[in-house]
Amino acid sequence: MVCKFRVRFQKTGLLRLVSHHDLMRAFERMLRRAGLPFRSTSGFHPKPRIIFALSLPLGVAGLDEVVEIELTEELPAEDVLERMKRQCPAGLDLLSIGSVHASATAQVGRAVYCLPVPPEREAALREQCSTLLASAECWIERRRPDPKKVNIRPYILAVRVESGVLEIDLRVTPTGSARADEVVQQLGCGDLLDAGAVLERTKLDLIDEQTPASNPSCLSPMGPTRPIELANQGFLAEPQGNT
Question: Less crowded by CB within 10 Å, the N or C end of the chain?
Fold first, then answer.
């Protein structure tokens, strides 16, 4: 028997400096210490089956992250959430939980990032955002894993500046996406990151949580999750046009 849960959580504070691998280990320890009957991987070194919807870049705070866990017994979602909450390290906060079909997989379709900007730079940055959105292409050079040039413009849904915050709205596909820091650099704001400004990922929209009205082609046959606590918090977006 497999009982699968989808959990939304925050990774903030000093924990944003923890690598994705260490975050996986933290969740593994949480499951063990909570005494939950987790499902393990096969092989010589079995571990809890923990799947993150989208890894978080080192140093970026996550306010709406998604992880899926599998248990071998059917337990109330509220019980699972509370038992895991008691084991969370500082900077890791579990927001909500929902049960999903065992064959469902969290696939991200959209991610939103925010970066604070000084008031005196807002006007110029708005012009740069307009220029970028009006461009048909935006080429950047990636050095890893192999040096190559990539046109990230198709992945940029929107960039805007409101109330001292730069918001970057990105399309995520199975074949790739743009990175928020790449867009920040293209907008001439890389110095803000160098000076210590914290980039935050504020939203992750999952394809199987879209409603038929917003995007019929993206609705999973398994249906949406059933949130228990702090449900959705308005993270679902209206459909975006092609760029």
Answer: N
Q: Which of 218, 230, 199, 183 is nearest to 62 (CA)?
A: 199
- Residue 16: Cβ-neighbour burial (10 angstroms; 0-12, 13-18, 19+): buried
Write down the residue that tokens 């008031």 correspond to.
Answer: 119
- CA–CA dist 198, 177 (Å, integer): 21
Two structure tokens written together for 21: 């691998």
The answer, yes or no, to whether residue 44 has pLDDT greater than 70, is yes
Cα 212 to Cα 38, 123, 221, 238, distances in angstroms: 33, 38, 11, 11
End-to-end CA distance of the chain: 43
Task: Name the pTM for this structure.
Answer: 0.84
Amino acid at 160: R
Q: What is the rounded (10 degree) CA torsion for 39, 66, 53, 148?
A: -140
**What is the distance between the alpha carbons of residues 66 and 7, in angstroms, rounded to a whole number?**
6
The arithmetic mean of pLDDT across residues 189-218, rounded, is 81
- Please report the domains of the chain, with CATH numbers, ordered by start residue: 3-100 (3.30.70.580), 118-196 (no CATH)
DSSP 197: P
Residues β-bridged to residue 11: 62, 92
DSSP of 152-172, one letter per residue?
-GGGEEEEEEETTEEEEEEEE
| CA R_g for the chain | 19
61/191 Cα distance (integer angstroms): 18
For residues 52 and 27, is the Cβ–Cβ distance under 8 A?
A: no
Report the C-alpha gap between 189 and 126 in whole angstroms.
12
pLDDT value at 189 more than 60 = yes
